[in-house]
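From the shared-data thread, chain only:
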Amino acid sequence: MLEAGGRSLARPPLLVIVGPTAVGKSAVGLEIAERLNGEIVSADSMQVYRGMDIGTAKATEDERARVRHHLLDVADPGEIFSVARYQELAQAAIEGITARGALAVMVGGTGLYVDAVVRGFLFPFEGRNDDIRQRLEQEANVVGSCTLHGRLREVDPRAAERIHPNDRRRIIRALEVHEVTGVPITELQRRHKGQSRYDTRQFGLTLPRDVLRERIDRRVDEMMSAGLLEEVRELVGGGYAPCFTAMQAIGYKELAAYLEGRTSLEEAVHTIKNETRKYAKRQMTWFRKNRDIEWVDISEYDEPEQVADEIITRLGEWPRGVDTGGDPA
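Structure, as tokens:
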């Protein structure tokens, strides 16, 4: 039992706003959190890193002043930030928000992070072996990620279906788990699932493909104008090599390649736009599998405030037991 605003809650409420990159999740989440005495828990695998602000569309100082944000700037770009660590920090944040009598509003597009909290998905610790991982990484350097992905398809078809052939880190992790435990990582994840500890409502924001494509292209141009190249140059100058996980984020690896003289700036920006569109498609594939998500086509609304109106209307009297009418604590 957790106490919220002096009342006992069997399961803390958790409002989740998801969708593809550039769809407008942050603006809608901010509006809802302000109206419902909420605090935002970021579910973005790259916003956890310090110094990566422009390319991750991190909340501004003004936005953080309006609504308290959690899970931003909790790791250095050189650190390995695991799903398990995210789950632990997010659960602690939600517990603190609930204890203050506020509503936790999770906003983001990293489906695995959302599932880690809402469904209990967790990369298991029992499959770790540094020697095996190092050998797989060396092998990937020689034969490439696609070859390892083919091997993963043989031992864990479900994991291979979820993991992109170019997602070297997750391919190696899945093969490592199978080699150490003899059990597919998807089976170990299934064993870690249980009843959600939260009373959750999930909403997904969507747009017609051509409209989202235009938004993505415009946002990349805005990021470049806002100083994304300078941000990447500073990170590289600070010793954060392109091989680090954080520096593999879209926008960062392409501009790092430009700074190394391996591509032109025009080609780098073009690649960022293409890779962002592909990423948005993968995000939608992930979220579409979740039948608990209630979808909102935001092309039917003119402003984020109207989208917030629609979601709040759908919520009705949910959540019960949390004060959503007063000022944030």
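The first strand starts at residue 2 and ends at 4.
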